[in-house]
Specification:
This protein is an alpha+beta fold. The chain has 14 helices and 15 strands. The protein has helices at 2-8, 128-134, 140-146, 192-202, 247-269, 296-303, 310-324, 328-334, 338-347, 353-357, 359-376, 382-392, 398-408, 416-428; strands at 19-25, 31-37, 47-53, 59-66, 88-94, 99-107, 113-119, 155-161, 177-185, 188-189, 209-215, 222-226, 243-244, 277-282, 288-293. It is globular.
Length: 429
């Protein structure tokens, strides 16, 4: 079965070992199962749904392919944009620092819309925490897009961002919102122009363009132009009058300009304002490809130390909670290294094996994970926790109570001594 899907839906660019079984409950209570792709290419997170058990009790086999959002790459020997065309324009759109959300139509056995389902890259259905934020979004345009059968095999890709879903960059002017960053329509990824036209037609907003990189007919050099319609950064404009012999050279300059924007913003606001930009462009071997460009100083932070700095670890831990939020206690109990493997895999794109395996990095991964986990749990004092343990387990001794505490509150492990002291006083009464 997997072999058939690899050929039919993944053009044999994915092997059976990359397809992992999944089973998930949708927001409306339908149960779906099938395979999810784990290979970090254009199919990362894509699904083949093979079975549906409707909330009504009706069950049937199906076969539905759901394209996810591709892996966004840095420029390297394999991931380069086309630059030898006579005329080129690449739009550098703001890389919003949030959660990638893919929306698809779940279809019944007749191919009709059963439910509109949001997913993240690593899951077939978005976690409860992400769904709670998604429910605050105005979804009228999304519902209108999927109604009827015109888009039953298409997917929309958004970035979910804002104060409520804060990661490294604080979008202080937005509580929670989404921006369209990609679309898979009629089995094709839309390029920038098509996506922009589609967003205007369907009432979707896209991220702001910060720069364009352009090359004109009969010229062999590239220009970088500031996009004047970028209202968010209009007071922090940076310009470039130079020309560049290659696209790569122009991209290096964009990195420097992004650093200048953050520096100018920092002087007035005390924080960075932009994580980077993304180009939705054409790969030098054809086909659409997303290329990310980050400020030169942020790139340098990843290369300089022998270990991984805390803020990079925090970003990947936050992604972990985006994917698995409500399932974290269950995953941790089954495998205490599950999050470690996930975070290290994510870090491997920007950091060397030596940096990731440095003891300081490993300590930081554990500490950051526990801090983030603890922050997701409603606050409760250690005194109240201890009293609750005694009240719910009146026949247990202190050793047994501590085992229950460790299992129930693993994120508070570093506070075990204080809980032990409180329990000791309570049991003396």
């Amino acid at each position: 079965m997997k072999e058939k899907f690899c050929e039919k839906y993944f053009e044999n660019n994915v092997k059976p070992k990359h397809l992992r079984n999944f089973e998930a409950k949708t927001p409306q209570g339908n149960l779906i199962s099938g395979y999810i792709c784990r290979k970090a290419n254009r199919y990362l997170g894509s699904l083949v749904i093979t079975h549906i058990a409707e909330k009504s009790g009706k069950c049937y086999d199906t076969e539905q392919f759901v394209q996810s959002f591709p892996k966004i790459h840095y420029w390297d020997d394999r991931h380069r944009l086309k630059e030898n065309e006579e005329s080129i324009i690449y739009h550098c759109q703001e890389k919003l620092d949030g959660t990638c959300l893919i929306i698809y139509s779940l279809n019944d056995e007749f191919g009709d819309l059963l439910e509109i389902v949001p997913k993240t890259r690593g899951q077939a259905v978005a976690d409860e925490r992400i769904l709670d934020m998604y429910n605050l979004i105005d979804k009228k345009a999304i519902v209108e897009f999927f109604e009827g059968n015109f888009h039953s095999e298409d997917t929309l890709m958004f970035e979910l961002y804002g104060i409520l879903n804060r990661h490294g960059i604080a979008h202080m002017d937005t509580y929670i919102d989404i921006r369209l960053i990609g679309a898979f329509i009629d089995s094709t990824f839309l390029n920038y122009i098509s996506l922009k036209c589609y967003s205007d037609l369907e009432n979707f907003q896209t991220p702001d363009s910060i720069f364009t990189i352009e090359k004109y007919p009969f010229e062999n050099s590239f220009l970088i132009r500031w996009c004047p319609n970028n209202h968010k950064l209009q007071n922090y404009q940076v310009t470039c009058d130079d020309t560049f012999p290659t696209l790569y050279d122009a991209i290096q300059k964009v990195k420097e300009l992004l650093k200048q924007i953050n520096e100018n913003y920092f002087k007035q606001n005390g924080r960075r304002v932009i994580e980077g930009v993304v180009i939705n462009g054409e790969h030098f071997c054809n086909g659409q490809m997303y290329l990310k460009i980050k400020p030169v100083d942020i790139e340098a932070e990843a290369r300089e130390p022998d270990y991984v700095p805390r803020r990079f670890i925090l970003k990947e831990v936050q992604k972990y909670f985006d994917e698995f939020g409500s399932k974290v206690p269950e995953l941790y109990e089954a495998d205490e290294t599950h999050y470690v493997k996930y975070v290290k895999q994510q870090l491997s794109e920007e950091f060397s094996f030596e940096q990731i395996e440095d003891p300081r990095t490993n300590r930081r991964i554990r500490n950051v994970f526990m801090d983030v986990w603890d922050s997701t749990i409603p606050p409760k004092s250690l005194q109240n926790i201890a009293e609750e343990l005694v009240r719910q387990n009146p026949e247990k001794n202190i050793s047994e109570l501590m085992k229950i505490f460790a299992k129930t509150y693993p994120s508070k492990k570093r506070q075990s001594r204080h809980v032990f002291n409180v329990l000791s006083k309570l049991l003396e009464r």
